[in-house]
Design goal:
Protein name: DUF6268 domain-containing protein
Largest sheet: 16 strands, antiparallel
Helix content: under 10%
Number of strands: 16
Organism: Hymenobacter armeniacus
Pfam families: DUF6268 (PF19783)
CATH class: Mainly Beta
Strand content: over 45%
Number of helices: 3
Order of helices and strands: HEEEEHEEEEEEEEEEEEH
InterPro entries: DUF6268
Domain DUF6268: 177-269
Shape: elongated
Length: 374
Amino acid sequence: MFDSIFFRAGLAATLLSAAARPVGAQVQERVYPPAAPAAQDTVARDKQQFANPSVLGMGPSKGLIVRYERMPRFGVSSSAQVQGLNDFSTEATKNARLSIKGYIPAWNHPHLKVIVGLSYEREEFQFAQLPTTYELYDNIENKGLKSTAAQVAVIRPVDDVHWYLARVKGELSGDYTSNELTKSDYSRFSAEAIYGWKRSPNFSWGVGFQYGYTFGRLSLYPAVVYNRTFNNRWGVEALAPARITLRYNVNPSSILYAGYTVDGYNYIVHLTRAPLARKNADGSPDPSKAVLSTLELRETEVKFRLRWERELLSFLWLGAEGGYRYNYAFDAFDRTNADREKIIDSQLNGAPYASLELFITPPRKLLEKAGVRR
């Protein structure tokens, strides 16, 4: 799956540098670590200025993030796309996600920043009737759909206007156990590259591409970064088409966001609890098709969200988020036979969701040593 958290944090490759960004720096005395000296929003080295994707007013840096998300009961329906399978509908009584992510600055220089990221995510489903008698749902019930990933992000400023950003990510995604971590079936890869322009301390934008699972299946699509602060309160942070967010800086310790995100998940599911056989129209086994041993589950959703971030301690922030989840796809594909057909087309009903998040920012003492007011 594609990890847009890198951009949700305001392009996380800049977030953990010893000099991070200010919140509402134009009028507020308390300033978050800027990407460089606040007066120029650049880093001076031998009088050379270096651009970056961040702008004044963005939120604080995120080093370690723990997030839990939950949805209430909602309807689920599936329709067969091949012969011999049945349609089915039920209710999901639980859909929850836990994620733990960390970002470490491996190299932090004005002209080159390298960030290493590690993450673990787990999604769980529970359904109203057990067993459901439907192979797809019985095989994901309380199973734990996981993603364990490592990524490297690089920001390379060229001069005081131009910058490059690149990221590569490898992950294991599916219902694997600790004994199956080496199986290639679970391997996933994603990447992105952006070339950008820093027009002012309040405006940075760029164009490039993303290659990953944001829309469920592995695909290559264009991407536009647009970060702009309009005044001491309002700003916008976007990685279109995956995310657009309007920002309102309430005060130095409180930020509000509103917008949408597109999230994609791609899991390999082993059919260990209920076998699934390809059949003929009369219901007899299809001898030309092997009994399915795995499925590829592609999940794509759009979230319309409101978010509030609040400082709890000098190094600890709380993020509270709520909104509406629209499911675009929850489809299962044959991973056993060569045709790789879609065999089940599912729809998860729209539902509200809520999440809580704690994240760690650079501590005050470290910023003071760096000569940055906060």
